[in-house]
Structures are given as C-alpha cells and as structure tokens.
Design goal:
Helix content of chain B: 40-55%
Strand content of chain B: 15-25%
CATH superfamily of chain A: Pyruvate-ferredoxin oxidoreductase, PFOR, domain III
Helix content of chain A: 25-40%
Number of strands of chain A: 9
Number of domains of chain A: 1
Strand order of the largest sheet of chain B: 3-2-4-5-7-6-14
Distance between the termini of chain B: 40 Å
Oligomer: heterodimer
Shape of chain A: globular
Order of helices and strands of chain A: EHEEEEEHEEHHHE
CATH class of chain A: Alpha Beta
CATH architecture of chain A: 3-Layer(aba) Sandwich
Distance between the termini of chain A: 24 Å
Number of helices of chain A: 5
C-alpha cells in the first residue's frame, strides 16, 4: 500500500486532488483506493491535509495516515508552518509547488524531492478560480512524473472523469505542462 | 455489468435510498445533518427519485413526519447524527412501538457535552433499547447494500431499522463502491405493501391510551394490553434474526456480495485470539490481525454487524473456545463498561467459556484509532493475561488517564514504557501460558 498526504490551504483544491488521484489509480487497475479530507471543520486559507491510499487489494484501513510514502505540498509557505516531514517516511518523496528547481530545495534529511512551479503553469493556462491559481492540477502532473505510481495517462483519464468540456481541456494542458517541467532530485 | 464509482459513505447511502425507491424523506437540514440528505434532495429535485421531501424544524418532527407517512403506507427514510438522534429519542420509541418499517441512517458521531462533531458510536449505542434493529457497516459498499437490505428486513418484520456508519471515517472517505443494478434492486425489493393503511375511508385510532390489562374492543373482541404489545415487539425483533440472515443470503445470490448476516469473521477459523468491534473499527482490526499474524500470534476478527437483535447464537458459535477475546468499542456505558462488551459476556454466560475478555474504549469524540494501536493493545493484554491478570479494568486506549489528586497513571499516553515492554516480551511461551490459563480444561466448551 502506498500512502499519499496532501498539504495545502483551504480553497486550494487539496481534497479534490486527493480524490482525482484515487480515481485515477482505480482506473489504472488498483483495486484498493481511498481518499479522505482532514476530518472536521475547514477554513479558507488555513493549513489542511487530505490523503490518498493506493493498494492492489481493497483497503480495510481507514485511520489517518501516520507516515506517508509521498507528501505533496501545494503551498511552499506551509514548510515553515507545518512539520510536513514528520508525517513523511524516511526516504519518502516530497513534491513541492515552488519556483525553485528540485536540487535547489533545502529540506534536510533523506528524501526524494520533486519541484514544479504550479502557480506559473496554472496562470499560463488560465486556471484561475476566485482570483487564485488552481495549483492542484499541475501538482497531479508532477505526481505522475515523480511518483512512479499512477501514470500520466490515467491521471488524464481521472481528470476527464471529473471534469467536462473546456475545463477538462485547460486542466489537461496544465497537467501535461507540469509533467514536462517537473524537476526531480533522488534521495541522497 | 459492473458500475463502480469512487464515493463517500454519504453518497453511497444516498444512492441506496434512491435505488430503494423511497417515497417520503424527511430531514432537518442543519448541523448535525450530513451531506447524505443534501444528495437525496438533489435526486428528488432533479426528478431522479420520485419522492416527497419534507424539511422540518427539528429531528423530533422529522421522525414524527416519518411515522405519519409510514402509517399511511409510504416507504420512508431519514438520517441524522449525534444530537439529532438524541432529540429523536422519544419518537424512536413511537416508531418501534407502532411497528412501522422506517429506515434511517445514523452517521455515527459523539455527543456533548462538551460539543463534538467527530466520530464515535455513543449516539446509536445509547438508543439500543428503543426497539430498533441496528446494523453497523464496515465500509461504503456495505452501506449501500445494507440500506437496500434494511427495507426488506423492516417490511418483513415491521420493526424499524437503523443503518449505522462511522461519521467522517466512512461518511467522508471516498472508496470504490459498486452501484447495484436498479432493475435487480426492484426485483429484490418490490414496492412496500403495508398490512394496514391509515386513511380517511377507513378511520382508525392508532396508539390510544392503553391500560395495564387486556380489554374488549367495541366489537367485544379481547385486545392486547400494553405488555402483550411489548412482548410482540420483542418477539418480532428477536425473530428478525432469521430474516436478516435470509435477506443477506438472498442479496448475496443476486448481487454477489456477502456482508455476513448477523456478524462476519476474518482469519478466525484457527484464531486463538479474537479482536471484536462494530463498524469501520472492525475493518481496522482486520489489519491489526494481519500485523499480529506476522508476529506468529494467531489472531482473527469478529465484526458484529447487527447489534440489535443481538447475535447471541452466532456469537456463541463463532467465539467458541478461544484463548482470549478483546472487545474494542467507541462507546461507554458510564459506571460499567462498553455496551458491546457487556452484551458479549452475557451471551457467553452458561456456555462454560472461560476465555479472558478485555474491554478497550477507543476513539471517543473522533480520536484516531490505528491498526497498529489495536495490535499493540492486543499484545499488551496478552502480556497481562500471561502474568496472571485475567480481568483487568476497562482500558481507555490512547487516553491520558491521569486524574488530579491520584498518583496512579493508567494505560495510554502516560504509559509508553509499559507498551514498549509488552512489545518486546511477547513470546511463544507466553502464548502457551495464555491458552492454558485462559480456557482451562476442556469442559463446558461453548455450544455451537
């Protein structure tokens, strides 16, 4: 079983990203997928998490993730607010929305790092909601590239399952752009 | 053809209601309500479900509407949680006493004070004695399937059914759910045919004041008194057991999914140690059993699916002659122990079973319960049994049990060292000890 934890702020599409990943993984053939928001009230702008579990067999475990295999960070400012590494396995992968390249990111420890400028990609493809760039789709692209778990093809399918018409087209362009632009630094 | 969608427990329940062709839905739409009734309102508004949707000002009124609609022959549904269910308490008795086949979902959540919106099962367990059948679901597939079964059960025995599932843990977690074919559901669950319909053409007085003794009606027929009616409700609820089992079997034949009737088991055949629970917690326990098996402890799980009627015979049969039984539950009967634990012990009385039973109160007010913690608790209990403690106090897992003025620190946060010790010390010899000590000589083995 692979566990993915999504860190973002209320309104950034953290929960939806966790859902789309679960749906994409299911389409790809994983029989066990779950996605869950942080349980409880949510507030715009406040730090929150969501989670996705992916396994070959149906999932019987619904407790919260203790240590994820992969952490996706939708807002790099959270690195200073939340102890993101505390919920990531040693040697795990962290995927960050940042203007930096993967080998410029300093987080210490023994982790794989993937970096993508999700804001720039969202703005370029006019993925904007209520004045804010929609960064979850580009991060799904980075996930496809760096995660080695759910392929770009199936995340595209997952997006099409969720979205329709023009929204799907713009999102899929952004997804592919992020896939191309993601930089990766393997764990040292 | 398989139609699998990734959905939350609330979505699964809403689709179950739609497939059951419910005719009247009543709901109070504000906290502690869930997205379940929101989804149903969309089905009704969009014309996907031809039903009357009645919003009222409180849960008490909600159930009054359901009782009235059911009395005039409609298939009805409602859902609520925590304080909404508590507010319905009086009407729960009226629904069961009137023998109306109402189905409701209880999305399990804790109750105040202090205020909580998070999951435990205190709300529905506290309604144990209202005359409702209670079924607990372990995942979202089971929610949709159980709802459809619930109507068939309720309409066969004229006892209302509460379909319970864990708030947030299932209600807000998405997972693959196969949506049953609507035509197959229609065959499995034909339209409701009430045995009596209250109507202006055939006016009747339902539930008048009844005397302690039996009385003749105006036609001179001797009618039931209060106790006879109560006895009939008790017999109907007890008798629901066969209907529940048969309904589950019939459902399995049509839809290919078996949720276990009164209870289900996991790796229990050769298990020496049984972990038992209700709802999603029992599912989590199956992962704990796997972890324990990796350490060569023969652990298995019994998931209690139906809490009322209590599966006494099934429990006696399936628990049989085990070495130890650990009951994990998200409720507490204040002043005693967990309600499930008491009921289990009562079921074992007279069977000669001497297996130690440890009770763990877990996850109250949404405190997360991990499979790892269930496994560790099991190890800790096995250690205690091996060292001669056969009946410890109820343990509050993952709870700082320090009381001001007391120097005693119990299990949980305050006692990490103890847990560590237990993890290290478990060995084959201890296991042997437990089996000898726990069950004694093979006399009075649990009857099948």
């Amino acid at each position: 079983m692979q566990e993915v934890i999504w860190h973002g702020r209320g309104g950034q599409g953290v929960v939806v990203a966790a859902q789309i990943l679960a749906e994409s993984a299911y389409l790809q053939g994983f029989k066990g997928v779950t996605s869950a928001p942080t349980f409880g009230p949510e507030r715009r702008g406040a730090p929150l998490t969501a989670s996705t579990r992916i396994a070959n067999e149906p999932i019987r475990m619904f407790s919260q993730i203790e240590r994820a295999d992969i952490a996706v960070v939708l807002d790099a400012s959270l690195l200073e607010v939340v102890d993101i590494l505390a919920s990531l396995k040693e040697g795990g992968l962290i995927i960050i929305n940042t203007q930096l390249k993967a080998d410029e990111v300093e987080i210490g420890g023994c982790y794989g790092i993937a970096a993508v400028d999700a804001v720039a990609i969202a703005l370029k493809h006019r993925l904007i909601k209520e004045g804010a760039p929609i960064v979850n789709t580009p991060l799904l692209g980075a996930f496809a590239r760096a995660g080695d778990l759910v392929s770009l093809e199936y995340i595209e399918k997952g997006l099409r399952w969720k979205l329709s018409g023009g929204a799907a087209t713009a999102n899929i362009l952004a997804l592919n752009a992020a896939f191309e632009e993601t930089t990766i630094k393997n764990k040292s | 053809m398989s139609n699998v969608q990734i959905m939350t427990g609330n979505q699964a329940a809403a689709i179950g209601v739609k497939l059951s062709n419910v005719q009247v839905i009543s709901a109070y739409p504000i906290t502690p309500q869930t997205s379940l009734t929101e989804a149903i309102s969309q089905f009704v508004e969009g014309g996907e479900l031809k039903a009357e949707y009645i919003r009222v000002e409180s849960e008490h009124s909600v159930l009054a509407v359901c009782i009235s609609a059911s009395a005039v022959g409609a298939r009805v549904f409602t859902s609520t949680s925590s304080h909404g269910l508590l507010y319905m308490h009086e009407q729960l008795h009226w629904a069961a006493g009137s023998r109306l086949p109402i189905v409701m979902c209880c999305v399990n959540r804790g109750v105040g004070a202090p205020w909580s919106i998070f999951n435990d099962q205190q709300d529905s367990v506290a309604q144990r004695d209202t005359g409702w059948i209670q079924i607990y679901c372990r995942n979202n597939q089971e929610i949709i399937d159980t709802l459809i079964q619930a109507y068939r059960i309720a309409e066969a025995v004229y006892v209302p059914v509460m379909v319970c599932y864990d708030g947030f843990v299932l209600s807000h977690t998405m997972m693959p759910v196969e949506v049953p074919d609507a035509d197959l559901v229609k065959d499995f669950l034909p339209p409701y045919k009430p045995h009596m319909i209250l109507s202006p053409e055939d006016p009747r007085n339902i539930n008048p004041v009844i005397f302690p003794w039996r009385r003749q009606d105006p036609e001179g027929v001797l009618r039931d008194g209060y106790m006879e009616l109560r006895y009939k409700l008790q017999k109907a609820t007890e008798g629901a057991r066969d209907i529940i089992v048969a309904t589950n079997r019939a459902y399995t034949e049509v839809f290919g999914r078996d949720h276990g009737g009164m209870l289900w088991t996991y790796r229990a055949d050769d298990a020496e140690v049984i972990l038992t629970a209700m709802g999603s917690l029992a599912s989590e326990a199956t992962v704990a059993a796997d972890m324990l098996r990796e350490r060569e402890i023969k652990a298995g799980v019994v998931g209690i699916r139906v809490f009322r009627p209590f599966p006494k015979e099934e429990v006696r049969e399936v628990f049989g002659n085990r070495c130890a039984i650990f009951v994990f539950e998200k409720d507490i009967s204040y002043g005693y122990e967990g309600a499930l634990c008491s009921d289990l012990k009562a079921a074992f009385y007279g069977t000669g079973s001497r297996a130690p039973i440890h009770n763990y109160i877990v996850g109250l007010g949404g405190r997360d319960v991990k499979a790892r913690e269930l496994a560790e608790a099991t190890l800790s209990s096995l250690e205690a049994i091996a060292s001669g403690t056969t009946e410890p106090e109820t343990t509050w897992l993952n709870c700082d049990t320090y009381l001001p003025g007391s120097e005693v620190r119990g299990q949980g946060l305050g006692d990490r060292r103890q847990e560590e010790k237990c993890r290290i010390n478990y060995s084959r010899s201890i296991k042997k000890n437990i089996c000898c000590r726990g069950t004694g000589p093979a006399r009075g083995v649990a009857s099948p």
